[in-house]
């Protein structure tokens, strides 16, 4: 009987697993081809100073146009790019693209914006990673403080030694470091003190808890932790006026979210910045 069950389970699960593997490999092949054909895009989501509501910078976000129309979610394809190692090349391009756009914005008179770029673990394992960032900043004559690298807690925990070392090196040249999705990754508090950080990004899940008449304890705790550690805090996924107000009252410095702007292509970002400059208060 037991044997029969095992056989049944095997027959039931095996084709499904094979299908998933085939699908994954197909996606990776498409991603590689589309990247080679320059079909990937980097979009930008503005980041806002909560007290003044001025735009202080933007996060670079990858977009992969889907063959069926629309876009493949980065939540789907970034892990595949990481798994296949493609993220090293793609990440290098995102970095260059982001820095070139920042430079172009400088030329348009936006002198001190910051661009935040998401970094994956395989990039840290690439020995060319740290020199690549320094060379890019040098070549484009970008102030290192105007580049921010976003890393997650799980990335740090994956290989703390290499991450701490690389970040210390980059930090000494002036680059800023943020922890993304803070509060979702069970990071060790001891690494929080060892890492040369500038900013904690309060995960969207905790900003979502902000509702009229309720207290968002985790968001509050993260802002306080940031303050005690001497770090800036930025709220992710701010969609409502009351969330922006609540986070500002907690002492959170900055915000990013649909209330202010969705991620957009560079051309739209220029238009957004021009409009936002003349009217600094977003509509609800
Ligand atoms: P993330 O770095 O935490 O980026 C923030 C995500 O929240 C983005 O999703 C953004 O579009 C979304 N978002 C921003 N404001 C709001 C809001 O008000 N409401 C809601 N519901 N969502 C909001 P996106 O662009 O789909 O990216 C997902 C994730 O993919 C990113 O999360 C990041 O982990 C990864 N990713 C994107 N671009 C890159 C990249 O260039 N390199 C790497 N390594 N990862 C990337
Ligand atoms: Mg991010
Ligand atoms: Mg995030
Ligand atoms: Mg995320």
TrEMBL record:
Residues 24-277 form the EAL domain. This is Diguanylate cyclase. It comes from Planctobacterium marinum.
């Amino acid at each position: 009987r037991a044997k029969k069950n095992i056989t049944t389970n095997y027959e039931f699960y095996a084709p499904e697993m094979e299908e998933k593997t085939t699908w994954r490999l197909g996606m990776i092949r498409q991603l590689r081809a589309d990247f080679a054909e320059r079909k990937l895009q980097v979009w930008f989501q503005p980041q806002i100073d909560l007290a003044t509501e001025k735009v202080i910078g933007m996060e670079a976000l990858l977009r992969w146009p889907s063959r069926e129309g629309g876009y493949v979610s980065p939540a789907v394809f970034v892990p595949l790019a990481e798994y296949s190692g493609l993220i090293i090349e793609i990440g290098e391009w995102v970095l260059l693209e982001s820095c070139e756009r920042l430079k172009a914005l400088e030329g348009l008179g936006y002198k001190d914006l910051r661009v935040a770029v998401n970094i994956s673990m395989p990039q840290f394992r690439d020995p060319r990673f740290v020199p690549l960032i320094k060379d890019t900043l040098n070549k484009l004559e970008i102030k290192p403080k105007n580049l921010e690298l976003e890393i997650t807690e799980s990335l740090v925990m994956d290989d703390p030694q290499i991450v701490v070392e690389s970040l210390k090196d980059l930090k000494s040249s002036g680059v800023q470091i943020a922890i993304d999705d803070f509060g979702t990754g069970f990071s060790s508090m001891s690494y929080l003190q060892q890492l040369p950080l500038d900013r904690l990004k309060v995960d969207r899940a905790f900003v979502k808890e902000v509702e009229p008449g309720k207290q968002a304890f985790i968001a509050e705790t993260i802002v306080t932790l940031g303050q005690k550690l001497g770090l800036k805090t930025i709220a992710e996924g701010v969609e409502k006026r009351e969330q922006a107000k609540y986070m500002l009252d907690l002492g959170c410095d900055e915000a990013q979210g649909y209330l202010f702007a969705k991620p957009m292509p560079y051309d739209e970002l220029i238009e957004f910045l021009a409009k936002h400059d003349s009217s600094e208060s977003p509509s609800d």
